[in-house]
Amino acid sequence: MSNYVKSTNFTAKDSLPTGNSGKIVKGSEIDNELAAIASAISSKADLNSPALTGTPTAPTAVSGTNTTQLATTAFVTGALSTLGTMSTQNANNVAITGGTIAGATITGGSISGLATDLAVADGGTGASSFTSGAVLLGNGTSAIQAVAPSSTGNVLTSNGTSWVSAAPAVVGFRGQLFTSSGTFNIPTYVTALKVTVIGGGGGGGTSSTNGNAGGNTSFGSEVTANGGGGGLSSDGGGGSGGGTSGATIGQSGSDGLTGGTKGSPGGTLVGLTVRNNSYGAGGDGSSGGGGGGGGFAVKYITGLTGGSSVSVTIGAGGTGANNGTAGVCLVEW
After folding, report:
1. Is there a domain that residue 29 lies in?
2. What is the CA radius of gyration of the chain?
3. Does 330 reside within a domain?
4. Are residues 248 and 132 in the same domain?
5. HSE (CB half, 13 Å, CA atoms) of 299?
6. Which of 172, 197, 264, 313 is deepest in the core (most CB within 10 A)?
7. Domain end (from 134, 166, 198)
8. Does one domain contain both 303 and 159?
9. Are residues 144 and 178 in the same domain?
10. Residues whose CB falls within 8 Å of the CB of residue 134, separated by 6 or more in sequence, listed in order
11. Does one domain contain both 283 and 146?
């Protein structure tokens, strides 16, 4: 880009005397001046959408200026000097390397791709994932502690400094009484049981009909107490007492007697707050023999797997002149 410099001093020609050859304005002088003017104009930028080349300069605006005034590189550098360093930027993300962001408020959206887990002191958890179903516990400024559920039936237990998943402590004995058939679910922390079973009592006989035998009571395949026999008709004799199988301690029920006297069960149910001698008794006869008492059995079972289940069958009392009473099962641990 060049500036126009006049090469002919036309004003000086006016002071020359008449007849002086230098007083004449030559066509070549005019052409030279016009050519210089045209050259200078062609090297200048247009006011409308100028296409500048080289290194154009402009006045630097005062910091904080917010107008349509041109912003020089000096102005931009000053404005960015307090923002830290942005290593890369595109339409979707800005990656910031180093430095600290203070007092920022994030509304909506999400933060992802962190190189390290956000610390608790910074409002994070200190971890990128936790075990499904785990219980989260505070741990000061350290990463949050996760306690996994572990075994079925476990509870959170304090060890004085933290919490752990553990089987509940058993204080004293516990038990479940079955007066009808069902299923016993072994608690997860139990490996040994005491099981007491009594068979159903036999029904009493009449003058013409024998009483029916009582049903057997069993705890799975572990132990069984048989039901008492039914009393015979015409007072022909009492029903026999029921026996047992698989018992640690077993006692047959007493036989029913002639004259209609019923037989007693082989033992009385005693456990926890349960004390009852009515289970498994034979029925009295009416002009027939009495029904036999149900068998009585106790078994101590070890090596069990917590969380498994056992089928419990309760023997019904035999029908007759007077029905025998049903058996029972008591499970203690």
Report:
1. yes
2. 54
3. yes
4. no
5. 18
6. 197
7. 166
8. no
9. no
10. 146, 147, 148, 149
11. no
In-domain check, residue 96: no
Number of folded domains that form the chain: 3
Contact 184, 312 (CB under 8 A): yes
Give mean pLDDT in consecutive 10-residue pieces for the chain, a chain of 333 residues: 78 84 82 82 81 84 87 83 55 59 67 72 73 74 75 72 70 82 93 93 92 96 94 81 87 85 75 62 90 92 92 96 94 92
What pLDDT is recorded for position 241?
78
Q: Which distant-in-sequence residues (6+ apart) come within 8 Å of 53 by Cβ?
A: none
Q: Tell me: do 230 and 158 sit in the same domain.
A: no
pTM exceeds 0.70 for this model: no
Q: What is the DSSP string of 170-198?
A: P-S--EEEESS-EEEE--TT---EEEEEE
Separation between Cα atoms, residue 280 and residue 269, nearest integer Å: 10
Contacts of 328 (CB under 8 A, 6+ apart): 177, 178, 179, 196, 197, 198, 217, 269, 276, 279, 280, 314
304: domain range?
170-333
pLDDT in tens, 69-124: 888 888 888 877 766 554 444 545 555 666 666 666 666 666 666 667 777 777 67
6: amino acid identity, one letter: K
- Residue with the two structure tokens 């931009």: 76
In a domain, 322, yes or no: yes
